Structures are given as structure tokens and as C-alpha cells.
Amino acid sequence: MRQQFVDKFQQVYGEGGRIDIYFAPGRVNLIGEHTDYNGGHVFPCAVTMGTYAAVRRRADRVFRLYSMNYPEKGVLEIPLDDLDWKREHGWGNYPKGVIRTLLGKGFQISHGLDLFYYGDIPKGLGLGSSASIEVVTGLILRDVMGLPDVNMVDVALFAQLAENEYIGMSCGIMDPFAIAMGRKNNAIFLDTSDLSYIYAPLRLPHEKMIIINSTKERLAVDERYQERRAQCEEALRDLQRVVAIHNLSELTAEVFEQVQEMIRRPVCLRRARHAVTENQRTIQAVKALEKGDIHEFGQLMNASHLSLKEDFEVSCPELDILVEEAWGVDGVLGSRMMGAGFGGCTISIVEDRAVNEFITQVGRNYKERTGRTAEFYVMETGDGASAL
Ligand code: GLA
Fold first, then answer.
1. CB within 6 Å of ligand 1 — which residues?
2. N or C: lower Cβ tally within 10 Å for the chain?
3. CA 247 to CA 228: how far, in whole Å?
4. Out of 36, 114, 175, 311, which one is annotated catalytic?
């Protein structure tokens, strides 16, 4: 694989020089959805799919970018003094955003690079493919430019900043954090209010983690995501009239019950109820996993789906059908929509013995009910971003 990748790099950029290869994974999130911008907990893990990037230094101040996934875009030539976002650069805006972010933070980038990318994360599912490109780029810049005192959490924060300020998607820290900090066989129990985290062994000895692509394209996801954020903020402001909190996740479900009437608009109350209960479910789910109680873990995933569907209203008929069908298969411990929502994918924990039936039955019934062909991926945990 390594030699093939180097050969491809050289076909595009020519021979010579030292070429280094890096990798950043994608991520799945077991539970803790739409909590990362409410100061709550998330529980994602890195997976084995991801983005490979090869790099070679240049003597001048030009960055060249090429992706095997977008050969039609050809080689993008980006002078260091013209890093503005450009529609026609498409995927190339992700690495550009990270370069711009580091410059904005005052780091010295003294010369250009030839960068060559290939990703095997299926697109449009919400498995963190853009964060994966950003994290691998940030890590390369750190190493190649010899940036002092930049650790992997910083790389994740720069990736998030690039996404928020340069790309214009106001996502939370979950994706880049899981991608930068992942560890094989573990999920990360991350408190997004202060970035404290622990690795929790993901003990699924007789189960598989299965992602199903609904093939429903995620329409207007950015605007709807932004709207949910704003509604959570409105609920928080209403609550702050009676409780001294900085974010919704500081409330337990019990305290929320007592103060919820302060939230003026019913829609904001529902959004806040999801943020609060989802955070509590995530804490409980990690405890269940530590006890080895996968059944309880699965039940909490199911409850997460209902809350995302009814209170947060980020599901869609296709995701609901996939989840309902999954719940109907004997040997499915838990299933829910995953990620931002409005299309994309679901995540299910399925006993080994039930995997074939799960794929056949859910696939068949989904086709019958929606006319769409679902795609199934058995996921494995992987390590976070690193040089290869
Ligand atoms: C997207 C965002 C994350 C997170 C999820 C929802 O994946 O990038 O930061 O908010 O949605 O949990």
C-alpha cells in the first residue's frame, strides 16, 4: 500500500525528495448526539477507514493539493498569500482552511508543500470525512513545520476552528477530537465542557458495530444544525434567569424538570430536554459498558434515537425506518440515527449470530418501504491520526 501510494504521488508531482505518509481516521459516535455544543458528553471512537495523505516539502511558498477522490479537480496550486475560500476549490478548501487557521494563530509557515490525499470514508454519511482531512493536514503542518508545543488536542481544536470559521459549519469538537485522539479498541468518553476525557474499552466480544447508509442525502443540514444550536442557546438564556449554569448539560434530568417552565418557547423546551437527557444517557451508557452490560447500553442507544426524533427533530423517515427495522431483528442490542441527522446513517450493535439476518432483513424491508438500497458497513475501531 505504501509503495503504491508513493508511486501515485510521484505520477502526479514527479519524483525526488523525501515523501512522508500520514493517516487520520473517520469516527463513529456510539451515544451523545447533539451534546457537543451544549457542553455535554460524547462517546465516539475512531474507525479504520480514513484519509491517507502523502507530503513533500517545496522550496517556494506554494501549496499544491491533489485528491485521488476528486481527480477531475486536478492539482490545485495555492500560493501562501492567497488562501481565501474559493467555491471552485471544492474539497481543497478543507486543507486550505487549516493552513489559514495556523497562520491566523501566529505560527510560521515558511515554505509550501506538495500534498496528496486519498480517503476511503464513504461520503455523505457523517463519518467525519471533512474533519479527517483537516486533522491529517494539521498534523502534517505541525510535523513538517516543526511547530513547537502543538499537541494532538490542539490539532483537533485547529481543525474545528477551520471548520467553524473558514468552511462556515458551526460544528462542535467531537469529530476532530475523536479523529485526533482515538485509540484502537476504545471509545473516548469526552466532556466537551472542559475537554477532559477517558478512554473506555469498547468491549463488544460477541457483537458487531454496524453502520447503515440510508442513501438519503443530507439536505440543508448546515442551516438546520445552526437552527438547533440557536434554539438550545435560547433555552439556556431562559433558564439562566433562575439557575446559574453555563450550559444545558450542567442540569440533571431532575433539576431540568423543576425549571423547564422557564423556557418560553415549546420548541426550545424540547431541544433543551434532548440536550439534558442525552447527556445523562451518555454518562449512564459508559457506566453500563464498564459493568459489561451491553443490553443496558443498547437500550440507551434506542432511547437516544427517540429523543433525537421527537425532541430534537433531526431524524427523517428513512432513518426512522432503518432504526425500526433494526429493532425488529432478534439479536440487535441497540440502534439509532447517528451524527447531525436529516439523512446519513444509523449505528447498530448487533450480536455476531444475528449479523447476516440483520443485513438481509433490514435491507429487504428498507427497500420495500422506501425504494432505496441500504448499504451496510461492519465497523472496526482504529487509532487516531499519526504518521505511518
Ligand atoms: C456533527 C457535528 C458534531 C456533532 C454532531 C451531532 O457531526 O460535526 O460536532 O455536533 O453533528 O452530535
1. 33-34, 36-37, 126, 171-172, 174-175, 339-340
2. N
3. 14
4. 175
* Distance (Å, whole) CA 54 – CA 16: 13
d(CA 355, CA 29): 20
Nearest to 192 by CA among 303, 32, 301, 83: 32
Q: Distance from the CA of 169 to the center of ligand 1, in angstroms?
A: 10
Contact 198, 136 (CB under 8 A): no
Position 1 pLDDT exceeds 90: no
- Decide: 347 and 377 in contact? Cβ < 8 Å: no
The sign of the torsion formed by the CA atoms of 162, 164, 166, 167 equals: positive
Degrees (nearest 5) of the Cα angle 81, 82, 88? Answer: 160
| 49, 26 Cβ separation under 8 angstroms | yes
Question: How far from the centroid of its chain's Cα atoms is residue 210's Cα?
Answer: 16
The cell for 224 is: 438546520
pLDDT digits (tens, 9 = 90+) for 218-253: 888 889 999 999 999 999 999 999 999 999 999 999
Ramachandran angles phi, psi of 145, nearest 5°:
-85, -5
Rounded Cα–Cα distance for residues 267 and 274 (Å): 11
Contact between 45 and 202 (Cβ < 8 Å): yes
Q: Which three cell numbers stand for residue 192?
A: 466537551
320 is an active site residue: no
Mean pLDDT of all residues in 272-301:
97
Do strands 113-119 and 196-201 pair parallel, antiparallel, or not at all (unpaired)?
Answer: unpaired
* Strand 44-57 to 76-79 pairing: unpaired
Residue 301, Ramachandran bin (φ over 0: left; ψ between -120 and 50: alpha; else beta): alpha
* Ligand 1: centre distance to CA 167 (Å): 15
Tens digit of each residue's pLDDT (9 = 90 or more) over 14-61: 999 999 999 999 999 999 999 999 999 999 999 999 999 999 999 999
